[in-house]
DNA sequence: TCTGTTTCAGAACGCACGTTCTAGATCGAC
DNA sequence: GTCGATCTAGAACGTGCGTTCTGAAACAGA
């Protein structure tokens, strides 16, 4: 009876993510969105309610995928500490990224301060990243990769802060060296707790 | 012949800074601006050209004042190292700030990616902060407050990144502990280079 | 084939925006 | 007092926005 959806909602969402990343929520207009998403206005409204609904869905999709990617570096590493090292080192890649591919989470933090729902979505992603790092650091400590004097919780919190600092400054073309330095310092700090 | 300006342009600019901080560039509408600035539309256009002109002026004013404040902590301290320590420690205050008082520099970095002029303004401020810290660290090293193994340039770059990471996460209500941890870690890292 | 939903293209809606214009009041300089 | 620029208040401009509506085409299930 009912005709199933013909367009791929997941692909549409990914394209929305891309546009929101490069244009932001306000500047990404509905005409632009429909053009890049490959579906007409009406289908978009049927699927996501309105522009903000699409944005929240894109925000959640982006954050989940981003954090998944980061955390997978922890689980696939030979050891917990090496996992964190790999993860932190990978942040240096942000320095070489195209400015139009900035972190959507950071964008949302900055200009969705008055959108409680958006805030909760991004806060969830940040928390998840921090938790993943903290867990890995605790494992590393238990495994003897870190000295007992290391403070996994504090370290994890600090590393997350560095991560988002890198995410912001990477948007400034002249910050390549800053990003590299921040990553190098974070790694040195981490390694200073090795026995 | 000519009648001098009656309103205080400096005060107007400060009020513009406050509104742009809490609302962002796009959301701060002209009616809102004229209401909060205490001058009428026409005067605003005469003085600043247009909305973007006012924004750039506010951005520059904010950044200059912000960096001035930070750097003054370096110059008034008993020693170069204590100056940096005081400066870094003060970033923890961001954690307790009202969300509507976020860093305008960060806002500009995030949603003025395609405004070359705005980008240059904020890049100048970031550079100035980094340079101030680097100079202080070099002085500290020369004075024997830091070991010869410390790398002032790299440290300064890393600290600036931490500063802006703190600035972003401070906008998330649940980040008080993260901000504190980042500051504490940065201080520990700094102090680890003391002879 | 029929039926009912989805998709499409595009027109149309109301609204808020940044900006410009008009006209009168204000006030320092001459 | 006169001149000329500045400030005020408010109407009005055009534009682009998000959204809704219209009607026809596409297409899966009965």
Automatic annotation (TrEMBL), chains A, B:
Residues 6-66 form the HTH tetR-type domain. Keywords: DNA-binding, Transcription, Transcription regulation. The keyword Transcription applies. One of its GO terms (molecular function) is DNA binding. InterPro entries: Homeodomain-like_sf (IPR009057), HTH_TetR (IPR001647), Tet_transcr_reg_TetR-rel_C_sf (IPR036271), TetR_C (IPR011075). The keyword rRNA processing does not apply. Residues 29-48 bind DNA. This is HTH-type transcriptional repressor ComR. It comes from Saltatorellus ferox. The lineage of its organism: Bacteria, Pseudomonadati, Planctomycetota, Planctomycetia, Planctomycetia incertae sedis. The gene is comR_2.
């Amino acid at each position: 009876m009912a005709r199933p959806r013909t367009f791929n909602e997941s692909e549409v969402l990914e394209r929305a993510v891309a546009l929101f990343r490069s244009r932001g929520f306000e500047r990404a207009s509905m005409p632009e969105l429909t053009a890049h998403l490959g579906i007409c206005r009406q289908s978009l409204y049927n699927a996501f309610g309105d522009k903000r609904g699409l944005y929240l869905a894109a925000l959640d999709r982006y954050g989940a995928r981003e954090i998944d990617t980061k955390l997978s570096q922890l689980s696939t590493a030979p050891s917990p500490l090496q996992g964190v090292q790999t993860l932190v080192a990978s942040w240096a890649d942000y320095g070489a990224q195209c400015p139009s591919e900035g972190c959507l989470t950071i964008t949302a933090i900055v200009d969705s301060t008055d959108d409680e729902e958006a805030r909760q979505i991004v806060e969830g992603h940040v928390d998840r990243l921090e938790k993943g790092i903290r867990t890995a650091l605790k494992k590393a400590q238990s495994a003897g990769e870190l000295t007992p004097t290391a403070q996994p919780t504090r370290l994890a919190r600090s590393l997350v802060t560095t991560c988002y600092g890198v995410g912001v400054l990477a948007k400034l073309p002249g910050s390549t060296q800053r990003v590299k330095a921040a990553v190098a310092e974070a790694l040195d700090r981490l390694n200073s707790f090795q026995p």
